[in-house]
Every structure is written in structure tokens, then in C-alpha cells.
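Project outcomes to date are best conveyed with an example. Our students and postdoctoral researchers have been running inverse folding experiments weekly, and each run begins with a structure described purely in C-alpha cells. The record below, which covers 370 residues, was selected by the lab manager from last quarter's runs and is presented without edits.
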């Protein structure tokens, strides 16, 4: 009897136990299958070419304002810290023929523009704001591109000579004319030099004549790196020691990097370019820009066609700063607009704070670096 009851109980437990085993086994199979599927998905995700979410474009590049921390003011034409005087900018036309050298006062300019004039020689526009030399020599005549170059700065332009239409053009762009021919104060002649290379300009006397519409300080025309911020050549430049420029067969300036002085030193060909005190001219930034040069349509007193550098439009260029160079592009929307510099990716260029020389190189010229 006990054996039969045990057999009956065993027969009743057998099917239940089998069902539990089947259920547990099925659960294990499901878990293992899930693990296998997850592993396949994970491996496939890492090794497949699945596009995933669409990439998000980075925010538009916004140049940093020309300020320093804690509200310390900067000079607008150099980006250097300083008191930021409210006086206007004063531009002076300066000669650069062989007979005009050595110049006086050019070393104090915040900005210097070099342009080709008649006969392939060059002339400077020296712009003063943060520093005022006691004298500038030799002062020469206005040219057709001077108005469009200087219009974004406002302020005053001092010159000796210049055809009426060039004067009218510059004045029409909002600049105040300080003219030797018109008898304005501040001009004299240096006895140690021969005419016409002996006209001297008194910058303080020029500024004293600023009228009510020309009292304000200039706006920044270029972007400068702020304190603790890298300049464009620090980020994207390639090392270089020399920048050679050919504006014409008779104008071949060269710039050599001087690490000790942290600036580029200027040479006229192979000869150091110096002021009357024997100090070599230098610049923190040198910008060479390819520009079209065409005959303006008029003639100079000697009967030669007057060339005009076309500074409205766009073109290519080279920036040298901090012992490095990089390719840039330039653009200027109209005669009153400032000139803009951008890198190969279209981002605005940040110059190193300090003085800047801008070389306007005809399309027939060239610039190279080593």
C-alpha cells in the first residue's frame, strides 16, 4: 500500500516538475537570446556605417572686441593699452624716393600705407594717433586712392600738393584737408634738404586746426588680439624670417623678423631703411595686399600717367606677424567702408597689438616669404 501511494504521489509530481523545468529552461533561452541580440547590436553599432544623428554646425565665428580685461582702454589703431586720447587721427603724406630718405617721424605712425605712384616709386600715408612726433619730413602730395584708404578713419589729412579732383574726392568722403598749398598752418621747409623734398609738417599744429566735425577719435579699422588671446598667425601661421616684396622694378622693400625686438625690420632692397636718427623702421604687423593698379586718367606735372591703386573690392594677401606668415584675403565694400581681412576659412584676422604697415602690391608685382 505504501509503495502504491508513493508511486501515485510520484506520478502526480512528475508532470509539475517537468513543467517547472520547461519554464525555467525557456527563461534561460530568452535571457541568452537577449544578450546575444544586445551584443550583436553593440558590435554592429561600433563597426557599421550607421549615419547616426545629423552633425550640428558650430556657431558662427564672432571676432572679439578690441578691449582688454577690466575695461582698460586701448588705442584704436594699434590695440595696445593706453589712455585712448579723444583726439582725431592725423594722416600725413610722406615721400619715399631716394632723395626723400631718411625720413623723419615715420617711426611714430600707428599705421603706414605704402602705395605706388608715378615712375614706379612709392609714397607713404603715415597715420598718427597714439604717438605724435614733433615733425614729419618730407611731406608730399595727395593721390587718388588716399581718400578711399583714409575715409574709414575720419580725421585730418596733411599734404603738400595734389590735384583738385583728388582733394575734392577725399574731402567728399568726410576728411578734413590740411594743405600746404592752401596756406594752412604747420608747414615749413628744412634748409638741409633740397626742394621739393624739404617740406616739414608739425603734427600738433595740424591737429590744432581740427574743426568741430573732426574732433572724435578714430574707430578701429582692424581687429587686434586681446590680452590672453592668440593672434591669427599664432594659431594658423607658418614660421618665416623674411618677406620680400616687389612693387615695381625700383621699389623692392624687404622685411626681416627680429625676435629680440619682436617686430619686422624694414629694408629698401638690401639696405636698412632708417630714420634721420639712424633707427631702423619696424612693424609688429606687415600686411601685403594684391591690388589692381590702373591709370587714373590724368597726368602729373611731368606728363606721366597717374596710377591709382584700387582698394574697393577684394583680393588676396599675406600677413606677417610674430615671426610667422599666413595667406589672407581682403575686401572693402565701398570707399567709406573699412578694409576687412580674413583667413582661408573665412574667419576675421586678429592682428598682434602694435603698429602695422600695409603694402599695396600691384598685380604685376609679388610678395614671397622664407
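After processing, the design step wrote out the following sequence:
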Amino acid at each position: 500500500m505504501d509503495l502504491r501511494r508513493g508511486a501515485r504521489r510520484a506520478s502526480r509530481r512528475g508532470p509539475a516538475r517537468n513543467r517547472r523545468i520547461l519554464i525555467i529552461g525557456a527563461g534561460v533561452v530568452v535571457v541568452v537570446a537577449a544578450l546575444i541580440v544586445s551584443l550583436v547590436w553593440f558590435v554592429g553599432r561600433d563597426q557599421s556605417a550607421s549615419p547616426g544623428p545629423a552633425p550640428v554646425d558650430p556657431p558662427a565665428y564672432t571676432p572679439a572686441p578690441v578691449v582688454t580685461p577690466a575695461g582698460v582702454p586701448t588705442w584704436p589703431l594699434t590695440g595696445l593699452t593706453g589712455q585712448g586720447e579723444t583726439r582725431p587721427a592725423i594722416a600725413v603724406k610722406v615721400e619715399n624716393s631716394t632723395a626723400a630718405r631718411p625720413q623723419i617721424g615715420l617711426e611714430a605712425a600707428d599705421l603706414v600705407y605704402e602705395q605706388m605712384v608715378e615712375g614706379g616709386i612709392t609714397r607713404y600715408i603715415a597715420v598718427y594717433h597714439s604717438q605724435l612726433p614733433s615733425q614729419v619730413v618730407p611731406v608730399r602730395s595727395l593721390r587718388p586712392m588716399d581718400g578711399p584708404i583714409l575715409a574709414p578713419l575720419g580725421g585730418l589729412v596733411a599734404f603738400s600738393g595734389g590735384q583738385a579732383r583728388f582733394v575734392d574726392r577725399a574731402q567728399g568722403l568726410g576728411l578734413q584737408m590740411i594743405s600746404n598749398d592752401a596756406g594752412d598752418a604747420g608747414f615749413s621747409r628744412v634748409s638741409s634738404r633740397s626742394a621739393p623734398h624739404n617740406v616739414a609738417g608739425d603734427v600738433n599744429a595740424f591737429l590744432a586746426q581740427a574743426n568741430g566735425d573732426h574732433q572724435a577719435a578714430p574707430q578701429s579699422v582692424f581687429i587686434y588680439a586681446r590680452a590672453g588671446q592668440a593672434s591669427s598667425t599664432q594659431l594658423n601661421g607658418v614660421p618665416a624670417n623674411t618677406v620680400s616684396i616687389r612693387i615695381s622694378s625700383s621699389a623692392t622693400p624687404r622685411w626681416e623678423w627680429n625676435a629680440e625686438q619682436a617686430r619686422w625690420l624694414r629694408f629698401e632692397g638690401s639696405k636698412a631703411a632708417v630714420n634721420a636718427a639712424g633707427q631702423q623702421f619696424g612693424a609688429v604687423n606687415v600686411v601685403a595686399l594684391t591690388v589692381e593698379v590702373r591709370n587714373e586718367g590724368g597726368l602729373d606735372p611731368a606728363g606721366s600717367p597717374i596710377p591709382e591703386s584700387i582698394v574697393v573690392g577684394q583680393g588676396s594677401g599675406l600677413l606677417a606677424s610674430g615671426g610667422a606668415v599666413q595667406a589672407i584675403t581682403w575686401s572693402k565694400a565701398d570707399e567709406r567702408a573699412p578694409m576687412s581681412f580674413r583667413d582661408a576659412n573665412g574667419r576675421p584676422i586678429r592682428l598682434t597689438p602694435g603698429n602695422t604697415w600695409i603694402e599695396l602690391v600691384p598685380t604685376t608685382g609679388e610678395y614671397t616669404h622664407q
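The CA atoms of residues 89 and 129 lie 5 Å apart. Residues 2-47 form the longest helix (46 residues). The training component of this project remains on track.
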